């Protein structure tokens, strides 16, 4: 294998022996998995299984008791500027709805603060401003949210806000996109449309996607790989294997009913 091939197959994310306590409660125990470039992996499991905790630990938003996390071949705590290549959509985007910020202004924040030297010219400043405006416009067009550009974010519906947050992730190049139940609060049609858009952008941008989802049917239709979690990793693999009746029973326990969408 040459160096170019090795780079292609290098995991975008590598989690090894991850254990997380919340106070004295063992939320996640000894979880290990890898994500290869360009794949879409879903984490499924019952409420309280540790899915959001796992995501937050991977992003280094909460501390872990044991285990290692590598993103783009580096420890998560030492990503430096590479962190800009990691996009995150939380389950609940909590903000003050009276805060006067428009959709365009929010999406522009996804680019980060430009760095100017003391001797930077005014022309460079305006060039950066034009480039930011063009990037925001392009991201909003691609997520079908351009018509919302001047709207205050506090006036958006749940589905509209999800598209704007996706534009926020899209406005600058990313390699890994992490979604923590990004479709919560969105109706069935909105979820279907969002999945279609996400899949289109994933192909175009060659994103690697890690998402938490409760929608087993949508996961089976759109994801390449599934991780079944209930504090520890119950199973993982292609949807047709990981989402077998036996594995779902082992993950969710008796009484679980799989709902399927019919269009």
What does this structure look like?
With 263 residues, the chain is α/β, with parallel strands linked by helices. The chain is built from nine helices and ten strands. The strands form two sheets. It has a six-stranded mixed beta sheet with strand order 6-7-8-3-9-10, sandwiched between helices. A hairpin with a 2-residue loop joins strand 1 (13-22) and strand 2 (25-35). The longest helix is centred in the middle third of the chain and has 21 residues, at 122-142.
List the helices and strands and how they pair.
Elements: H1 3-9, E1 13-22, E2 25-35, E3 40-44, H2 51-58, E4 66-71, E5 74-75, E6 86-89, H3 103-108, H4 122-142, H5 158-170, E7 176-180, H6 188-205, E8 208-212, H7 216-222, E9 225-230, E10 232-237, H8 239-242, H9 245-252
Parallel strand pairs: 3-8, 3-9, 6-7, 7-8
Antiparallel strand pairs: 1-2, 1-4, 4-5, 9-10
Estimate what percentage of residues fall within beta strands.
15-25%
Q: Major sheet: size, sense and barrel closure?
A: 6 strands, mixed
Compressed to H and E, one letter per element, the order equals HEEEHEEEHHHEHEHEEHH
* Content-based structural category: alpha/beta
Low-confidence stretches: 3-7
Counted beta strands: 10
**Could you give the order of strands across the largest sheet?**
6-7-8-3-9-10
Describe the structure concisely for a colleague.
The chain has 263 residues and is α/β, with parallel strands linked by helices. It is 35% helix and 23% strand.
């Amino acid at each position: 294998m040459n160096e170019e091939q090795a780079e292609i197959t290098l995991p975008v994310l590598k989690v090894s022996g991850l254990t997380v306590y919340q106070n004295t409660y063992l939320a996640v125990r000894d979880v290990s998995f890898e994500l290869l470039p360009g794949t879409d992996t879903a984490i499924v499991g019952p409420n309280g299984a540790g899915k959001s905790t796992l995501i937050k630990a991977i992003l280094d938003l909460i501390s872990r008791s044991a285990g290692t996390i590598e993103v783009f071949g580096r420890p998560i705590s030492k990503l430096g500027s590479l962190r800009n290549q990691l996009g995150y959509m939380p389950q609940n985007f909590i903000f003050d709805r009276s805060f006067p910020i428009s959709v365009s202004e929010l999406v522009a924040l996804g680019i980060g603060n430009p760095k100017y030297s003391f001797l930077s010219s005014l022309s460079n400043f305006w060039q950066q401003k034009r480039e930011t405006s063009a990037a925001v416009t392009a991201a909003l067009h691609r997520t079908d949210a351009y018509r919302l550009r001047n709207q205050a974010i506090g006036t958006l519906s749940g589905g509209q806000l999800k598209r704007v947050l996706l534009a926020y992730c899209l406005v600058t190049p990313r390699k890994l996109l992490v979604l923590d139940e990004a479709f919560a609060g969105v109706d069935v049609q909105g979820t279907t449309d969002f999945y279609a858009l996400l899949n289109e952008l994933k192909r175009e941008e060659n994103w690697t996607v890690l998402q938490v989802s409760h929608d087993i049917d949508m996961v089976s239709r759109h994801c390449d790989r599934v991780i079944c979690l209930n504090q520890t990793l119950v199973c993982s693999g292609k949807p047709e294997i990981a989402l077998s009746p036996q594995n779902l029973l082992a993950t969710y326990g008796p009484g679980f009913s799989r709902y399927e969408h019919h269009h």
